[in-house]
């Protein structure tokens, strides 16, 4: 999979893709992430990419010309399956969206900044608008990193055990069950006996029951329509 990211502050994205699972995914050739500085397509020698908003008000807006020129330039070499704008008023990211996007080959992510991007760019180019939560960040870069991580870990071969992603929270609309590791007795708190008995069928039944119970307690909204 190839993911291009368009931003005015590319340095913010240097670290998230240089470590851990995202780095391994790229080292294996399973994921290619390329960050592009929007100022490459600035409208003047001052590297301007933003301007005051019509109608007045605080905050700058990313302009049409740099964004359109950047998107069209990138499209000359890549046919994108989705052009995604990270924005607080987009659809809230969930596991199902990550699953769907992980099946694509080429994605372009636009990072908003300041007051966002000109509405005409949203209407003309954007295919998906995604939010990572009901709050506002300084820009879309951290949100883009979250989205790439959520997608990238689902690609076949990225995780050492590919079944791991299938048991994550929100797959099948359930939260993950509690997990334990050594020692079996920590200061008097013991691992549930069923996990030590070596019966895979009973372990899976226990994990499902725990997932269901945890979801009922913490996120009952996920179970609407399931009961």
Based on Cα principal axes, name the global outline: elongated
Q: List the secondary-structure elements in sequence, H or E.
A: EHEEEHEHEHEHEEH
What fraction, in percent, of the residue positions are helical?
25-40%
| Number of helices, counting only DSSP H or I runs of 4 residues or more | 6
Assess the beta-strand content as a share of residues: 15-25%
Distance between the termini: 37 Å
- The strand line-up of the biggest sheet is 2-1-6-5-7
Structural class: alpha/beta
> At the first level of CATH, what is the class of the largest domain?
Alpha Beta
Name of the CATH homologous superfamily of the largest domain: SPOUT methyltransferase, trefoil knot domain
What's the CATH topology name of the largest domain? Alpha/beta knot
If you had to describe this structure to a student in words, what would you say it looks like?
- By secondary structure, the protein is α/β, with parallel strands linked by helices.
- The chain folds into two domains: 2-152, 3-Layer(aba) Sandwich (Alpha/beta knot); 169-223, tRNA(m1g37)methyltransferase, domain 2 (Trp Operon Repressor, Chain A, Orthogonal Bundle), CATH 1.10.1270.
- It has helices spanning 20-27, 64-75, 95-101, 119-124, 141-152, 200-218, and strands spanning 2-7, 32-37, 50-52, 60-62, 82-92, 106-111, 128-131, 185-186, 189-190.
- The strands form three sheets. A five-stranded parallel β-sheet has the order 2-1-6-5-7. A two-stranded antiparallel ribbon has the order 3-4.
- Strand 8 and strand 9 (189-190) form a beta hairpin.
- The longest helix is centred in the C-terminal third of the chain and has 19 residues, at 200-218.
- The mean pLDDT is 94.
């Amino acid at each position: 999979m190839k993911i291009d990211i368009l931003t005015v502050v590319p340095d913010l994205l240097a670290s998230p893709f240089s470590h851990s699972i995202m780095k391994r995914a790229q080292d294996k050739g399973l994921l290619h992430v390329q960050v592009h500085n929007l100022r490459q397509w600035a409208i003047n020698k001052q590297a301007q990419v933003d301007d005051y908003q019509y109608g007045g008000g605080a905050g700058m807006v990313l302009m049409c010309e740099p964004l359109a020129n950047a998107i069209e330039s990138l499209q000359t070499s890549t046919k994108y399956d989705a052009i995604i704008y990270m924005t607080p008023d987009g659809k809230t990211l969930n596991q199902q969206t990550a699953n769907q996007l992980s099946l694509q080959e080429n994605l372009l992510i636009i990072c908003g900044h300041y007051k966002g991007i000109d509405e005409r760019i949203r209407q003309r180019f954007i295919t998906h608008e995604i939010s990572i939560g009901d709050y506002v960040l300084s820009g879309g870069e951290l949100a883009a990193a979250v989205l790439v991580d959520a997608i990238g870990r689902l690609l076949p071969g990225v995780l050492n055990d590919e079944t791991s992603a299938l048991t994550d929270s929100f797959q099948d609309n359930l939260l993950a069950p509690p997990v334990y590791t050594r020692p079996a007795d920590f200061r008097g708190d013991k691992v549930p006996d069923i996990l030590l008995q070596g019966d895979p069928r009973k372990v899976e039944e226990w994990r499902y029951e725990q997932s269901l119970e945890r979801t009922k307690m913490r996120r009952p909204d996920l179970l609407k329509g399931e009961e």
